Amino acid sequence: MNRKQKYGQIRKEAIACFWALVAVIVFWTIAGIGVSRLNITIFHTPLWAITGCIGTWIFSVALVIWLVKHVFQDFSLEDEGESLRMEGADEQ
Questions:
Q1: pLDDT one-digit tens code per residue, 2-42
Q2: In terms of CB atoms within 10 Å, which of 4, 28, 74, 78 comes out highest?
Q3: DSSP assignment, residue 44?
């Protein structure tokens, strides 16, 4: 990967993280506030508390797993020429 491709990938990951944050906020709003109108309880706990807390956490974990599998890439931030120069300096 050249420098331009690396910064393009970094930008792609940052934009994906922003949209993931927006998705979590929307999900949290719907799962918490949207469900609060329902009069449902589970073990004497309102449904909105469970969906707003535990549901949002599960959604966030699933979203991070998707980001790791489909968006993020593992690469070195060092330039290839720079790492070769560093190896040569260590040998001397």
A1: 889 999 999 999 999 999 999 999 999 999 999 989 999 99
A2: 28
A3: T
Whether pTM > 0.85 for this model: the answer is no
Which of 67, 33, 66 shows the shortest CA–CA distance to 51? 33
Token code pair at residue 33: 């506030």
Is 54:42 a contact under the CB 8 Å cutoff? no
Within the chain, what is the greatest distance between any pair of CA atoms? 74
48 and 38 Cβ atoms separated by less than 8 Å: yes
Do residues 31 and 37 touch, judged by C-beta distance below 8 A?
A: no
* Helices 3-29 + 56-70 axis angle, to 10: 160
Task: Find all residues with CB under 8 Å of 50, minimum gap 6, and list them.
Answer: 42
